[in-house]
Amino acid sequence: METIEKYFTLTGLLGVKSRKVKAIEYIISGILLCYAGLLCCPNLLFGHSIKYKNFNIYSTSEFDNSICNVLDKTRGNLSASSINDTTITHNIYLCNSYSLYSFFAPFVRKSFACNYCPIKSIFISNCDVRMNEAYKNDENDSYTRQLSELIAHEVTHTLTERKLGFWKYRTLERWKNEGYSETIGHNEAINLPRAKEFLRTNENNNRPGILYQKYYFAVAYLMQIEKMKFEDIVAAKYTLDNVLNKIETIKIEN
Q1: Would you state the torsion angle of the CA atoms of residues 100, 102, 105, 106, taken in this order, to the nearest 10 degrees?
Q2: Distance CA 162, CA 9 (A)
Q3: Is there a single domain that holds both residue 152 and residue 232?
Q4: How many domains would you assign to the chain?
Q5: What residues does 128 pair with on adjacent strands?
Q6: Complete DSSP assignment for 171-230
Q7: Same structural domain for residues 58 and 155?
Q8: CA-CA to 243 of 20 to 30 Å: which in 112, 126, 203, 251?
Q9: For position 69, which CATH number holds?
Q10: Closest Cα to residue 217, out of 181, 242, 244?
Q11: Residue 251 confidence (pLDDT) above 90
């Protein structure tokens, strides 16, 4: 009898624990579902919007038609990409708030932007549309860049994933992925003397900002000097160091 009572008491305790665990699981699942819903359709949190060509712009702050000038520059930069597709609509969200951007980009909250390629949604941390400037959510990093370049960079990631597919995009070497987006974002001729000097000065410096510059120089060199197409760069067996060594040893005619 005592054994049976202990069995039912233990079963009861496990049942109570199980119900509590299930309740917690339901709560967590509900929170994740709500977050996923906001991520897929965050428009309710952005009070201002405009549709311009193949861009939907949403912002927490008012903006004027200068955003159209920014997007025209973005489209001009994107035109340098062989994988550009103007029939794809991109959703751009201007957060203008550290807390809001951190909510949508919790793992890269100190970055310029975050791109959820499968849903074609790009979140920008902070920017000044009239000045065509974008800022990081990082008090220790005052580096700014052009908003038009940043949008072109992020859109190129979306186009790259569309071209390569979900898995191949995610296994593409980082220097190729980011370097190609940077090259299209800048859309300017590579300055080889500047590149050589930069690589010499920062040979052992691999901080994030410096690395991105190295990625850019590597891909810009392959595209502009070796005339490689997007598909060639993706398939190339080069490492980042291989390409940087090419730049460092290339002779520049006066």
Answers
A1: -140
A2: 57
A3: no
A4: 3
A5: 133
A6: HS-HHHHHHHHHHHHH-S---HHHHHHHHHHTTT---HHHHHHHHHHHHHHHHHTS---H
A7: yes
A8: 112
A9: 3.40.30.160
A10: 244
A11: no
Q: Rounded CA gap, 180 and 220, in Å?
A: 8
3-class state of residue 121 by DSSP:
strand
Judge if 6 and 64 occupy the same domain.
Answer: no
Name the region of 187 (left: φ>0; alpha: ψ -120 to 50; beta: rest): left
Tokens describing residue 209: 């900002």
Residue 26 structure tokens? 């339901």
Segment 88-106, tens digit of pLDDT: 999 999 999 889 999 999 9
**What token pair was written down for 168?**
């191949």
- Contact indicator for 45, 60 with CB cutoff of 8 Å: yes
Task: In whole angstroms, give the CA distance from residue 155 to residue 41.
Answer: 18
**Residue 252: what pLDDT?**
77
Q: Which residues of 108-132 are buried (b: 16+ CB within 10 A; e: fewer)?
A: bbbbbbbbbbeebbbbbbbbebeeb
Last residue of a domain, one of 130, 163, 196: 163
Terminus-to-terminus CA distance in the chain, angstroms? Answer: 100
pLDDT digits (tens, 9 = 90+) for 154-206: 999 999 999 999 999 999 999 999 999 999 999 999 999 999 999 999 988 88
Helix 66-78, helix 174-186: angle, nearest 10 = 120
Do strands 126-128 and 133-135 pair parallel, antiparallel, or not at all (unpaired)?
antiparallel
Residue at token pair 């708030």: 97
